[in-house]
Design goal:
The chain is an alpha+beta fold and 177 residues long. It is built from three helices and ten strands.
C-alpha cells in the first residue's frame, strides 16, 4: 500500500513538474509581409501582418504594433514612428480558435538608410510578447529639389518686393515735395 501510494505520488509530481501552461508564444504566430522592400525616400509602403491563433481556445485582448529599427552602419537605433506611420498599435478584441487576423500598417519613408521592420503582439493575459521575423527595408535617397526652378524665385521675389516698396516710396516723395 505504501509503495503504491509512493509510486503514485512520484508520478503525480513528475506530471506537475513537466506541466507548462500554454503561453502566447505557443498559441500565437506573427508574420510580416513583404519580407523585404527596396524603395525611395518619400514613397508610401504598406506592411501586412498576419496574427494566427494556433490554439483550440479563443485569444482575446491582444495589441499588435509595428516597430522600425535603423541598422545603417553608425546610426543603429530604434525609430520613433510618429513621422513614419499614423497606425501604430492595433487592438484586437478576439481571434477565434485556429483563426487569423490581418492588420495593415502604411508607412511613409522619410529618411534613407537600412532598416528592419517587425510586428510585435502583446497578449494582455500573458507575460511573453511575440514578434515576427524582421523585414529588411532599404531606402534610397532621392533629391526632389530642382535648384534651377527654385533659385530664381528665391532671389527674384525679394528683389521684386524691394523694387515695389522703393517705387511706392519714390512716388510718395514726389507727391510731398
Amino acid at each position: 500500500m505504501k509503495k503504491s501510494s509512493l509510486l503514485l505520488s512520484i508520478i503525480f509530481m513528475a506530471i506537475i513538474v513537466n506541466y507548462t501552461p500554454a503561453s502566447a508564444a505557443s498559441r500565437i504566430a506573427v508574420t510580416i509581409n513583404p519580407p523585404s522592400i527596396q524603395a525611395n525616400m518619400g514613397d508610401t509602403i504598406t506592411y501586412t501582418g498576419t496574427i494566427t491563433n494556433s490554439s483550440d481556445v479563443e485569444v482575446s485582448n491582444i495589441i499588435a504594433y509595428i516597430s522600425l529599427a535603423n541598422i545603417t552602419q553608425g546610426k543603429e537605433s530604434p525609430m520613433d514612428l510618429e513621422d513614419w506611420s499614423a497606425n501604430k498599435a492595433v487592438k484586437i478584441e478576439t481571434i477565434p480558435p485556429h483563426g487569423t487576423y490581418e492588420g495593415k500598417w502604411p508607412m511613409r519613408l522619410i529618411d534613407s538608410g537600412s532598416y528592419v521592420a517587425y510586428i510585435t503582439v502583446v497578449d494582455k493575459n500573458d507575460n511573453t510578447p511575440v514578434s515576427s521575423m524582421m523585414s529588411r527595408l532599404e531606402i534610397q535617397r532621392i533629391l526632389r529639389l530642382n535648384p534651377h526652378n527654385v533659385l530664381p524665385i528665391a532671389i527674384g521675389e525679394p528683389i521684386l518686393i524691394g523694387l515695389i516698396f522703393a517705387a511706392i516710396a519714390l512716388r510718395r516723395r514726389k507727391g510731398i515735395v
